[in-house]
Amino acid sequence: GLSNINLSQGPRFGDQIIEACGRAIDKAMRKKRGHDVASRFEGQRFLVFFGDTGPRNATSGIERIRQTIAASTFICGEMELELTVSCGVAEMAAGEPFKEACRRAGKAALAAKSAGRNCTFLDVGEGPEPVEVTDLKVTGHIITLDE
After folding, report:
1. Would you say the pTM of this structure is higher than 0.70?
2. Residues of the chain with pLDDT under 50
């Protein structure tokens, strides 16, 4: 995980990986809708908000991001890294506080980590459930980290 990279390579290198993941997330998002926003949430976590989108389309968007990162190669000097992410999706109910939806998405991401990582879990209000994986045939990228 990233904490091992921080210990072996230093926190600056870990920060570069997080920045590169942010760029990969941005590239994988569809920009034409105008309602979708991604940002670093805390630590190693990113928050992606799909506005005016149901759970099926939001899950598809997150899977596109997850699969793109898994298909990409991150390069720093002579080092090549392959990364995976564990994703949690929560459908925000009408009137639900944003903080509560974020908490449920976090629990879904923890369920994905516990299930073996590199997968997505969805919570539509009844607890996290695994998402059936569809191969989206995404294109991986070569992402160079700043040295």
Report:
1. yes
2. none
pLDDT tens digits for range 36-66: 888 888 888 899 998 888 898 999 999 999 9
- Give the pairing of strands 73-76 and 142-144: parallel
Structure token pair of residue 125: 């209000």
Report residue 37 as tokens.
Answer: 């926003």
Query: Whole-angstrom Cα distance, residue 73 to residue 101?
Result: 32
Residue written as token pair 């995980």: 1
Q: How many residues does the chain have?
A: 147
Rounded to the nearest 10°, the torsion over CA 73, 47, 32, 92 is 140
CA distance 59 to 76: 31
Nearest of 143, 138, 141, 144 to residue 30 by alpha carbon? 138
